[in-house]
């Protein structure tokens, strides 16, 4: 395993961190604790020592805490988790959530604690008004929080303001070759590093989009340079080639994926990409950008929708329709919307209530984008045609 030093604390962190948001699920949609345990143990065995979870990742803190306790791993891993600041309306709430998280994680301290998903500077100002700075100082003094940071999905300007708004120990940003100038972006990454902060990178594969389902022409650009490396390996290596990146988080949910990521982590050192590599990435970016119409990462933050619409799945179908063809996208849309069942949730069921919009870290205008989905994947004849098919099948 490649290790990078947290420039602030001197901690030796594995360049590959485990993103526990995407632990494998059972058929009922709960975390498969046995599979998650096998993955965590394999990761630790391969040298991964940074595990990232959050209060809002359903079941993730509990499962991770149980695995760490059962296997006596607390001394060998760093735990990162996050405060659901949107649910904090008083000073006491900060303590309440942290207490729940310490119980779930079966520990008395959080190594890396983040204010979760800051999307605007005003959100931080609201927390300051509630007394978060005093609270952080108290918790760091007591040892319940070792290092404090924030995860960020807002504008670059707001990221720069956040960097200077508090004496942070670290920060976490979305960064990948398709988002080099999006959100904090490269300028934010460099600014954080200049201030001596370790930078944790999330979404290196943009919710898996840079791993599977790339346009064939984009994959060909990579294959021209290195036919043996997968698109995922290219995307991870690109992030690790930045010396300012301390840890890259990957939400690995099978052992093969974990093994591949570890293998890439071992060789993807800072500055390890050649000019030819960078040219291949630039060419692929040009091709991919033309194909991905809605920049949804599948994070699910916008869910649940009061109308039951599976927002990320519909966007995935829409993007697919530009990459692998309209028919493939339409088929995916029919499956994702449950259009063949009695309880379908179509793009046209959106009532534009806006509940999802303020939760989306990618700032997608969900209702407007769903209108696009409807126009492309739900032609007027689709619902009656499906009704006929259903009747015949019955
Ligand atoms: S705007 Fe549409 S998609 Fe978003 S939560 Fe409301 S009904 Fe659901
Ligand atoms: S629409 Fe936004 S919040 Fe919802 S899954 Fe996509 S990126 Fe996440």
Automatic annotation (TrEMBL):
SUPFAM superfamilies assigned: alpha-helical ferredoxin, NAD(P)-linked oxidoreductase
Positions of transmembrane segments: none
Domain 4Fe-4S ferredoxin-type: 341-369
Keyword annotations: Iron, Iron-sulfur, Metal-binding
Gene3D superfamilies per the UniProt record, alphabetical: Alpha-helical ferredoxin (1.10.1060.10), NADP-dependent oxidoreductase domain (3.20.20.100)
Protein name: Aldo/keto reductase
Alphabetical list of PROSITE patterns matching this protein: 4FE4S_FER_1, 4FE4S_FER_2
